[in-house]
Design brief:
Strand content: under 5%
Largest sheet: 2 strands, antiparallel
Number of strands: 2
Order of helices and strands: HHHHHHHHHHHHHEHEHH
């Protein structure tokens, strides 16, 4: 039944419209693979009413959001429309906070890259140091600026030789909680992600050899690497550069947002408008993909707005064509423009477009405003210490 819960929550929300078959176009992508097959469900539930009744129970318990199209799915499975009453939410079911969680203050830390003060200090230096780029002008902070929203507020970032990258720079804040990195998920860890911009020709355009050789010329870095990676005969390696940067990035957590305070019990932390927006966010089905500590399920969903093939470029699987990782929503009010191509300038327009494209919902101005105000409550406290610029090591000539 847990698999059924997960499958119904993750898939039935995305039925595009009544003319397209809910089961065939969406449910079948999971059912029969990672969730019970059609045959299993038909064996377990003898009538469409039984299936819908069970789904309603799960809604009442807060396990599944309201607004799911399980009625249409049941009709397709059983060949007839279930005889349902209009009241799909039992009295007393009005708790929406159960669909969310407070942002943890400690991120997941991989066993092969333990966090230490020495490694954090080194990672911070490297993060802000433009000498890791070919031009010696671009640092990690250039595109992921910690003084704003952890991004650069550009449609696409400007890299080496004034080239523009193909995608919008996502925020680095709270990236430690993401299941995969980059819009197309080509990096599984922060360590892998850290290597990408360093060597990408449209970004920092360096090479591993170039980075290592430059760092070895700086006595301060030689000592910092020794402290961060004690016992290693040759601590200045490209892998260790990535490990140090990733360690520092794991400190970039933004807790204590109004939303977190509300979840913790402060019912005055959100305005009435924001609470209405939170309810809409759940009822419409946004929470199906935007869940977890950073409101991203870490999965890939089709979002075809330009010729970027997304996840397909990584897997070469036709099923991944135009699919992108669900964007995290923490601090989303600070990270305009939006979407993987940076094509939308303001948050309210992004909300309206997402509702239409992903949920086939035409939001009213009032609904768009309320959801936007709710998303503004996800802006957390950006810690001061990580934003204080370090003193860079000097070359001894």
């Amino acid at each position: 039944m847990k698999k059924l819960i997960v499958a119904l929550t993750a898939t039935l929300l995305f039925a595009p419209n009544s003319r397209a078959g809910v089961w065939e176009t969406t449910c079948s992508q999971c059912h029969g693979k990672i969730a019970p097959s059609k045959e299993t469900l038909l064996e377990k539930f003898k009538t469409p009413e039984e299936l819908v009744t069970r789904a309603r129970e799960l809604v009442a318990k807060g396990i599944m959001p309201k607004g799911l199209q399980f009625g249409k799915a049941a009709e397709e499975l059983f060949g007839r429309k279930p005889n349902l009453s209009k009241n799909i939410t039992p009295p007393g079911t009005n708790t929406y906070t159960r669909f969310f969680e407070i942002l943890p203050t400690t991120p997941p830390i991989p066993a092969n890259n333990p966090m230490t003060e020495a490694k954090i200090e080194l990672g911070k230096r490297l993060y802000f140091d433009p000498r890791l780029s070919r031009s010696e002008l671009i640092s990690c902070n250039t595109c992921h600026n910690l003084s704003i929203g952890g991004d650069d507020n550009q449609k696409t970032s400007i890299g080496d030789k004034w080239q523009h990258g193909p995608r919008n720079a996502p925020t680095v804040f709270n990236a430690a909680f993401l299941k995969v990195q980059f819009w197309d998920g080509r990096a599984a860890t922060l360590e892998e992600q850290a290597k990408g911009p360093l060597t990408a020709h449209v970004e920092m355009n360096a090479t591993p050899k170039m980075v290592v050789e430059r760092l070895k010329e700086l006595p301060d870095y030689v000592e910092l690497f020794k402290k961060a990676f004690p016992g290693e005969r040759n601590p200045i390696t490209f892998d260790n550069v990535a490990k140090a940067i990733a360690t520092y990035e794991r400190t970039l957590i933004t807790p204590n947002s109004p939303f977190d305070r509300y979840l913790a019990g402060d019912k005055t932390a959100l305005s009435k408008t924001q609470i209405k927006g939170m309810k809409l966010f759940v009822d419409l089905g946004c929470v199906s993909c935007h869940r977890g500590p950073v409101l991203s399920d870490g999965m890939f969903h089709k979002f075809h707005i330009n010729n970027d093939k997304g996840r397909y470029n990584v897997t070469k699987n036709p099923a991944d064509m135009y699919k992108f990782r669900t964007a995290q929503l923490r601090n989303v009010a600070l990270t305009a423009p939006y979407f993987h191509d940076g094509s939308v300038k303001n948050l309210s327009e992004a909300v309206r477009i997402m509702a239409k494209k992903m949920l086939n919902k035409n939001l009213t101005r009032k609904e768009t405003y309320e959801i936007t105000k709710f998303l503004e409550s996800l802006t957390g406290h950006i810690p001061m210490e990580p934003r204080v610029l370090p003193v860079m090591a000097e070359v001894v000539k």
